[in-house]
Structures are given as C-alpha cells and as structure tokens.
Amino acid sequence: MGTTGAISLFSQQVLGLLGGLFLLTAFALIVTRQLLANLMIFAAQSVLLAASALTLGCASSSTHLLVVAGLTILMKPLLIPWLLRRILSRDMYARREISQVLSIPTALLVAVGFATLAYFIARPLVAGADPAVRINLPVGMAGLLLGAFAMTVRREAMPQVLAILSMENGAFFAGIAIAPDLPLIAELAASFDMLIIALVVGLLTKQIDERVGRTPVGELVALKEDSAKWSS
C-alpha cells in the first residue's frame, strides 16, 4: 500500500509530529464554539495537511505531492477563509457560542471514542505498509470520523460546512500517503469543489442570517416544511 517508498527517519518523525498536531485540530473543531476560532483552526489544519504533503513530496521526490501542497496552501488556509470573512457579516463572527447538540465534555468523550475506533480500523490495513501510510492513514481516518461527528453535533450552517471541509482534509491526509501519484486533474477538481462549496454556502448563510437572524439547520428545515404546508 502506498508508493512513497522508503523515507528517512527524520521525515518519519516530522510526519508523526504533523499527524499529532492534525489530530489535535480535529478535536479542537469539536470543542470550540466560536465561528472565527473554528475558521482559524480549519486554516491551521489545512497548513498541517500541506506541510505533510510537502514533507512526503520532498522525501519521495514526488512532483504530485509538491503540487498538492501548493494547492492546499493556496485554497484552504488562504482563499477559503478570506472568502468567508469577506462574505459573512462581522456579527456572525462576534457571537460567543455556536449552538451544539452535546456539551463539550460529552462531545470530547465521544470524539476520543471515534479516534480510537479509527486506530483499530486502520491497524490491520497498515500492517507491512510504508512508514508514511502507517502514520497518515490512522490520523486521516480519525480526522474524517471527527469531522463527520462535528458536522452532526453542530446546529449552525457555517460550522457544519467547516466540519465538511475538515472531513475532506482527513481524507486527503490519508490519501497523500496511500496514493501520492493521484492525477493532478483529480486534485484540482477536489480543491475547486471545496472552494465552490464554501462560497455558495457562505452566500446562502449570509442571506439567511440577514433575513432570519440565525442559521440553525433544524429551524431552517422547519421553515421549509411550514412554507410547503402553506403553499399546499
């Protein structure tokens, strides 16, 4: 599994450090309830993803991974946060707390359970694999599960979008080790898809916030059902 080949012990240590920090940002997205802080954590997580791709690219002389690192830095920590901060109002960022289904201690305990589950799922898959795969695959799977969990416990639209983007970060964190020579067209398509998703949802969230004052997903579904009822 993986085609990165043998990498130096120093590169493995750097990858391990980046993987640990990446996992911490996944936990931070769950326990942080301020939108601006969530956006900054996502940006930091994306920088760690780019750094991991850069480390693998330099260690294995992979041009594809170097391009992935460049695209990630351009799109996720820079362009997407800039767009969202330009689109959304300052009032949304100034709010102290994001509505969440579970309390922070409960959510953190469940998140630890998901991270442990990801480790046990990945353990048989990485047996005999390259060192990069043994590091990145469990961390990437944990990031994917924690992003999905963050999306389910959030009630606000924009934090759910950041959780989806975090899931994509987790999938890429594992993917750069498993398939480092992924065609560049696929990498470009995925990067622009995430950009379009963030832009469209940001615009919709701004319009909803200006008209309704809040963006809880459950209430938006109820509004949709009520409007359908009145139209019938």
Report on this structure.
The protein is 81% helix and 0% strand. Helix 5 (104-122) runs antiparallel to helix 6 (131-153). It starts with 8 loop residues before the first helix and ends with a helix. The chain has one domain. It is mainly alpha-helical and 232 residues long. It is built from 9 helices and no strands.
What are the key terms here?
232 residues, mainly alpha
In percent, how much strand structure appears in the residues? under 5%
The total count of helices amounts to 9
Q: Percentage of helical residues?
A: over 70%
> How far apart are the first and last residues' alpha carbons, in Å?
56 Å
The stretches of 5 or more residues where confidence is low (pLDDT under 50) are 222-228
The computed structural class is mainly alpha
Rg estimate, integer Å: 19 Å
- Mean pLDDT rating: 78
Largest sheet: none
Taken together, the total number of domains comes to 1
CA-based shape: globular
**Element order: H for helix, E for strand:** HHHHHHHHH
Strand segment count: 0
